[in-house]
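Mods, move this if it's the wrong board.
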Amino acid sequence: MYPLKNVSCVWTSKLAYIIGLLATDGCLSKDGRHIDFTSKDLCLVEIFKNYLGLKNKIGKKVRGDEKEKRYFHIQFGDVNFYRFLNSVGLFSAKSKTIGPLRIKNGYFFDFLRGCIDGDGNIRTFRHPESQHLQLRVRIISASRKFLEWLQGGTKHYSIKGFMMQVQRAYVLEYAMRDSINLLNKVYYKNFPASLRRKFVIAESFLRT
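Not the wrong board. Structure tokens:
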């Protein structure tokens, strides 16, 4: 008998962050009850586990044609939480079909932090001519509709990103000023713990 309700579906900043992780690096099985989260960062899977209060063990798995188990993952069954995710707009086989999600007001940037930690990146580099420090925040997805929705969500706060296609994936990228403004929304004062290796890049650009 599979558990019907283990995970709380009450909106919090942590839950919004978890939904961001699931929207980018999560998987909902076709059976209507199992949810899987996979990452190369063990600490990120541990955050996922702790935020949801799971007792399940973290395992390792391969991806694609790889033979070495280099990725950490956790799987659990919760029918009620699965249905909650459906109500938000997450379904099985979502990678190319995911579109706009129903994120509760006030939690968009917690959700976006989860997207960045899941399948995004924050990078700095030197401009090849001026040698001035540059910053870029990017989120990658196989679904253009999903990234267009994210793009519209940040534009509401006068943070403008631009879209591009790289091979079979789409990339939503923010230039220097917009990246700084975005990171200051995502990493607000006393935000819940997130993936540290990405935060340390953003930290020097924060105003608080």
